[in-house]
Amino acid sequence: MKETDWRFRIAHREAWIGLGLALFNFVWWFAFAYGLGSRPVEEYTYILGLPDWFFYSCIVGFLVMVVLVTVIVKFFFVDVPFDEEQEEHR
User: Comparing C-alpha atoms, which of 57, 59, 61 is closest to residue 69?
Assistant: First the structure.
């Protein structure tokens, strides 16, 4: 049985992390946009001139995702060399 390249295991793990981040972003956005945004317009509150549902779903959500992605990439992702196979053939 052919052994799987160790780089594929890392890529597979990082792809799952990326998928988890995308799902978290969607849940965040959906919960605030449809949770707070489903009220009648007369009941909206405004933050910095924006409806609260938009502020929390789009502005705060973006900032949360920037911080999350930065932290996860810095501490959980691994730098993988792509040229190792070429060096083996030399």
Answer: 61
